[in-house]
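haha ok so turns out i had the wrong file open the whole time. this is the CORRECT one, sorry everyone. sequence first:
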Amino acid sequence: MDEEYDVIVLGTGLTECILSGLLSVEGKKVLHMDRNDYYGGESASLDLTRLYRKFRPGGTKPDEYGRDRDWNVDLIPKFMMANGELVKILIHTDVTRYIEFKDISGSYVASGEKIYKVPASEQDALTSSLMGMFEKRRLKNFLEFLQKWNDDDPSTHQGVNLDTTTMSAVYDKFRLEPGTREFVGHAMALYLDDSYLERSARETYERIILYITSVTRFPNLKSPYIYPLYGLGELPQGFARLSAIYGGTYMLNKQIDEIVYEDGKVVGVRSENETARAKQVIGDPSYFTSKVRKVGEVVRAICILTHPIPNTDSNMNSVQIIIPQNQAKRKHDIYVASLSNTHFVCAQNYYLAIVSTIVETDNPEAELQPGLKLLGPIKEKFVYKSDLQEPIEDGTKDGVFISRSYDATSHFESVCADVKDIYKRVTGKDLVVQQRARQEE
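then structure:
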């Protein structure tokens, strides 16, 4: 291991694996190390034995759950927007040939005591039971306005400037009711809170268009979300494989003893009595405790069920439900993600549901209650809290580039923004995502 690399990557979380794959494809000599004996780091998918080892040390998994290999439980539940940045990066790198995907059957929003399907088109708006008749028309007009918008054609603007008009003012223009604004902002634009209302409407416009185009991206999608068969742990492994094809070196189960600096700049990483040298090191926050700050906490509950989530259309096998902050009387939304054996993440006749939110009180589990209540009887529950961390510096001074923790959102758009940001700081250029010519193995 005592040799020179262009970049050393620490941790096999999704962010780190995407970056090592992208940099390897560009001809950089990459060494990738992880102290764990499995891929994925914080974003791993664990079999039941590993899951019980992590959350019930000393306990053993009950035999009734069947074989380990039938279970791939995500520690960080996220779905992929079918037209989102992660899908574009997967196609750009051709990692899609290692992974199969399946759609998520439904996208729901909670309102009052009930859950409703999220309308994703003008037609959906007219048939939704979420609103009264007049509000359906107003929502239809609002969605038509967004889809017809053309920056170069003022006749499509209806007096709105997306860059200077606030989103709140756009809602006012279409006279949308508070409940409609709530599900548009939280279940379509996928904001965690309401701070977006006073910002310019451009970002919200782009998020809603992403939602709508994701639903229509592939034939027969029932929601804007897709998900890899066998769990999210497949994603880091796919990018690790890409990196290896282009000459990247991987070492799992490798102790990281010291990040080595000379004159304030990183020069390598020491593991036991070997040192690998590189002028740039990328890693997740757990490898750089003195260089990150805590900006919050996320609480998650992984639940094993013996039934689909009640009150979803004909008991769907996979859904996302968003409980907007105001419905839960909180500052942040609560997310519920549910999967079944059709995605090869649990044994036959079982279902996985994961409830997550940003921590606001000193009783985090109680904060998940509105989401847990929707699940019906729960067979087994693992509750855990993790810190949200971000780097204190951008890494340009010392050559150490640190990723952000995975947030409570239910999709990968924030992860992709972090990948693009680190890529630009490491290489000095923007990541341009386009389909590549294949390099055959």
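The domain at 106-215 is CATH 1.10.405.10 (Guanine Nucleotide Dissociation Inhibitor; domain 1).
again sry for the mixup
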